[in-house]
Amino acid sequence: MKSQNKSFQAFIFFWIGQLFSILGSNIVSFVIIWTITDLAPNNNTVLSLAAFLTFLPMVIFVPIAGVIADKWNKKYLILIVDSLQALLTLIYIIILLFGNLQIWHIFVIGFLRGTCEAFHEPVFFSVLSIMTPKNKLSRMNGINILFTSMVRMIAPVIAGFLMAFMARVWILSIDIVTFLIALVPIIYITFPDFKLKESSDLKNNGNNSFWDHLKEGFHTIRNIPGLMMVMLMATLSNFFFQPLDALIPNFIRYTHLGGQLELAYFLGFLNLGMFLGAIIMTVKKHWKHISATIIIGLFSSSIGLIALGFVPRGNFIALYLVGAIFFLLEPIINGLFQTMIQLMIPSEKIGRVFSVLITMSAITSPLGLILAGPTADLLDSISLLYIICGILNIIVVFITMFRKSVLNLMKEGQRLQDEAMNVKQMD
């Protein structure tokens, strides 16, 4: 028990450093997306192409990253990925100093930053799952979403405010400072040496390739009734929500005639809703109605996307309120799903399973991103595109979440959570 608590304390030290890293990365992202609107005014296609190239590595590299997360030294993986992201920011700063920044520079840097993120995410979730006691997983997931949302809420506001007073190279330098802060715990803490365990099938067949491990992760998911259907729903939902992610800068700047601060505040309010939801996820120790909570949350996000499309031009107060209110339940949905999966899957397979889930749920996202800009240009309205995507997503959620296998999956998640809470009470 003492060793487990010591491991958890080490994780908290590491996690705090990662929050600083997230702050720097989100400040860089804000500066980059606003720079795109400067270089390609009111061009939805260029904006969506930049988002596409940034996200594409999640589909390409996450499967490999998940296996690596299970098999290789996690400390060195995190160290390498975070260092590369800081290096890319430094290269971006140098290009700006020479004064010849072009769109293709942003495309290349975005793709490489996305690659780093693709390797970082499965490793982080693997570390969280291994170093956190099972009876604290639900709350730790909630706390992680809570503070991550808080950081993502304040990052664009900081960036938008600073852009009014400072040169962009100095704002980008914040990412280097936050990297150095995050570097300290990575160097000093010891990560568990949790080696990949082979299944009996892999051992008997003598197979040990990346694809064999990925297949095993896929089979693990397939053997849990309802999980494959949820993964399919997530795939389609991610597709329909990509226009929101890709076109927000032009939605604020050209549809609603806003500026840097309006974009910063809107992004801040979006994350404020997630922040408040994460507080609920963290404070609430036990969820008695997981099924109902998840279903209501999924419908709420879709209605929020539709509502954004109906907000009158220039009514930023309404935009802020819609962003905060309708995305309130998103961190709760994610936290409950993450906890269910972490409780259902053996620890030595977490990296592989998460990599498959992330990859499959995101596999259509690049398509959604690349189509978002041209479709908005064709419709001549980002607002109309948001309304259409929200309606289609409501249909997908309705068809999926009321299937018997999915309802049984959530009942099993409820049982495992109740069991974990009972263990905690006994301790």
Question: Which fold name fills CATH's third level, the topology?
Answer: Growth Hormone, Chain: A
Q: State the end-to-end distance.
A: 10 Å
Under CATH, the homologous superfamily reads MFS general substrate transporter like domains
Fraction of residues in H or I helices: over 70%
CATH architecture descriptor text: Up-down Bundle
Number of domains: 1
- Please tally the β strands and state the result: 0
Q: In short, what is this structure?
A:
The protein is 84% helix and 0% strand. The chain is an all-alpha fold and 427 residues long.
Structure description:
It is a single chain. This protein has 427 residues and is an all-alpha fold. It has one domain (2-189, 218-426): Growth Hormone, Chain: A (Up-down Bundle), CATH 1.20.1250. It contains 17 helices and no strands. α9 packs antiparallel against α10 (260-283), α9 (227-255) packs parallel to α15 and α11 runs antiparallel to α12 (316-326). It starts with a helix and ends with a helix.
